[in-house]
Write a structure and sequence with these properties.
Six copies of one chain form a homohexamer. The first copy, chain A, is mostly helical and about 190 residues long. The first copy, chain A, has helices at about 15-30, 35-40, 45-60, 65-80, 85-95, 100-110, 115-130, 140-145, 150-175. Chains in contact: A-B, A-C, B-D, C-E, D-F, E-F. The interface between C and E is medium-sized, with 26 and 26 residues.
Chain lengths: ~190, ~190, ~190, ~190, ~190, ~190
């Protein structure tokens, strides 16, 4: 069987109840268990914090659409060369955006993607947080405000980029493998 | 209609006969005309040289399989953030390798892709040619020889990386857009 | 009054009970409230996940000493030019290591710090996770195993580096200001 | 005898007729055979495509002077640390510009060279194509238009930079050695 | 005893009279001998030139305050990861600025330091001289003039950055160790 | 008249006696006054320290030949894109090495230059001091010792690289222009 992590992957049976419940819930919804769940479950406390953080950023109300949040994930994960996150969140971006092309575009070069100028500005900020956060200054905030983003939206953009800075590094370190299912999700049936 | 190049795109009717013939031939075979043909046809002489070079490297006999050549294209185009080449040659790589996952893996991070150590060494050399060719030295050749590559194979690897250094820059400069068809080619039908 | 964040900083009174309790607890122990607590409390759900993650990595049992964990924080935060984390965790490193010089050394250039070869190897890995995680491979794991680190220790090292990749980016984005108290903590009284 | 390539260098006698003719022609004109001809002749099909491409860009009519085209070659080859191209095209630049100093200036730092603002803008674009083509955007085109370049001129600039991205990588990979003659060509006689 | 240099460190007795006098003078004033004096004294001629240069830049009259000159040293030494210069000149900056926090701020990220816009512009120029001097152009001079700097002030800023480019490299090469005393100098007594 | 510096260039008449004497001496020997002398003479004290330092490194006895010292200057100045130093010291390198090709080779890519393995190792160290001195460690010293360099020779190599880190930055900042004479010096008469 193909290895999905450098580290031992727990079986559902050996997991704490809350983690098992979370995994069964996602399996119910997605039809399979994304490897990020079982590979990070090797460390239950870190698992709980990771997904609590994820949910706080990705499921909260706010001006950013679900698709826009996934654009941030895919663009910054592309900048960090993170295979798991590009493939898994690329699939989610296809589904939320109902656009089968967008994820591949954003992953390779968001400047060439089918985006609005507002979305492009959003990704410019996100990628700067991902790769050069020490240089973030007032001008970066002003640029986003000029596109109609409120300061709370800017926190959302930056925080998602920051959270996936963590996520990308964990996936790269443990060689987390994307499930085969992700590669095709959200792509139209071939005629 | 979506723009596929910053530059005028000639219609088939206005093209020189040899170029039109080449384009009709690829359309016959692929079922559509990849945008690289019509966008580069804006400059017929450069078109002819471009495809003569492409064919000399990609269609010649040699120890590298067709899939391996496409791996080189995809890995170096990923390093150069070239949307057209990653998407179009990713499709070709899926077809030649009969592996629907490999292209996305190689585009994001070839070190995590389902490759043999020999193929990984091949891509390490190709990416060095792509991004740091001035530092290529005897040790790089020795590493490939240690994996069984003949010197002529090494020329092939480096020359493909070098040719796509050109191709990636042209595509990035003119904002060449990949055809929508490429995104799905070589992916299995969804069940 | 000096600004400690680009974003509104909640008063203790307006915070949810659990967050206020956590803040009062740290104030009790440290004698002041580190700004990371009140600035991140602007987003209660993210606050809870952030500190749950922090505690899971920094307070857990394990082979890495508390000082070694702080070395990882300071070295990677130095690599990311994060003022808050270098100053605040530099103070904690001075206290845990009982070495008033070590934090400044590790922040500027860990290669010149008063460390064992084992600790230097640990920081080489941590900094690679921080700045080039896509290139992490088996050789990096082998190097650490050669210094006696178990695979679970390596997860700890990498996960701390990954968590502070997030933390550094948040602090840089919101311009989190270190409390003045940190600059002197753990330094010996001047004679 | 000094090696001029890592690969076998064919003698004139063993070359296909068209390639031998081309080489004899250049020898007639230059008084010697530049090593790029005999070293690349190791692969006749690639040779033909290479020089067809070269000629399509460097010999065509257009608004860029011959000297300006060579400036692009020298500046981008300098950015790529390519010994052969800096030395050989530096010689050609001296001849076309009738300026014995310009080539060395452009090779080291075009910003300090004796150029017009228009030429400096041209090289800024060329070097961006050479080293960061994924970031090329509308603003880069507008900057050149502001200096009076037509869009077809911009294609020329970018295409020359792209072609020498290929050429530099081939020369670096095979360790192509510049002929001794180039170092002095176009320099005034010493008094 | 802790090593303060990779190279032999002369005793006062074996030094030429002028160098010994200089060292005794600094010892008299500072209360200890900074290691830069005894480690560089290994090469008396270079020592004399080094300190003549240092004094010409750091002790001369001019519009830059002594604290501002030290800011330049600390910011550029931080950019060069030079432990000796960050720690030693950080101490001097604390003393001259009478601000116990400023040195650590400037060393980690001068953009987040308690500085005036004029001082921030000064450090932006200094860091560009330190890390990308080939790109210095008229716009950089204009930016400083816009903050009221005379051209002679700009020379001072750039020359200090240039001199510490030398100093940082010497300290890094010989592993020059900062005296323990520096870490605490200029910090307030702990209450 | 072409500008040779952004700053005022003093006439010989207005210079202090010792500086005038030095300049007349070099003029006597070289047949012209290299611009570094008159442009840096704008600041007499810095001038004196600069040339004292230069002489201490470049004129001293030692195992490195004069040509080898100039190789270090040219290789590191190439890495720093410093036009003045590449052109002026390239000329001196041609003269000392009696090799008219070497300077251009070393300036563009020392790895492809006609050097011994020992000299190549010397330049690898020098360039590391120039561009990544914080990472210098024992292994770098061991590599040079393996080529027969004594530790004092290594100091010489590193100190020359460090001094020209200063020199390159000064020349880049003030836009120091190389004298036209340098471009041809040391090149053979054209037949």
């Amino acid at each position: 069987m193909t290895r999905i992590s450098r580290y031992p992957v727990p079986s559902l049976a050996e997991l704490p109840e809350d983690i098992r419940a979370r995994i069964l819930e996602v399996q119910e919804k997605a039809g399979f268990v994304p490897n990020v769940f079982v590979t990070l479950a090797h460390r239950p406390d870190e698992f709980r914090a990771f997904f609590a953080y994820h949910d706080a950023l990705m499921l909260k109300e706010g001006a950013l659409s679900k698709a826009e949040r996934e654009m941030i994930v895919v663009a910054t994960s592309g900048a960090n060369d993170c295979l798991y996150c590009v493939v898994a969140h690329g699939a989610i971006l296809r589904i939320y955006s109902k656009n089968p092309l967008l994820a591949d575009q954003v992953a390779v070069n968001y400047r060439k993607a089918d985006l609005s100028p507002r979305q492009r500005a959003m990704l410019t900020f996100a990628v700067k947080v991902a790769v050069d956060s020490a240089a973030i200054d007032d001008a970066d905030f002003d640029a986003l405000r000029g596109h109609g983003f409120a300061d709370e939206d800017i926190w959302d953009i930056g925080a998602i980029a920051a959270f996936f800075a963590l996520s990308n590094r964990m996936a790269n370190m443990i060689s987390m493998r994307p499930n085969d299912e992700f590669y095709l999700l959200g792509r139209p049936p071939r005629s």
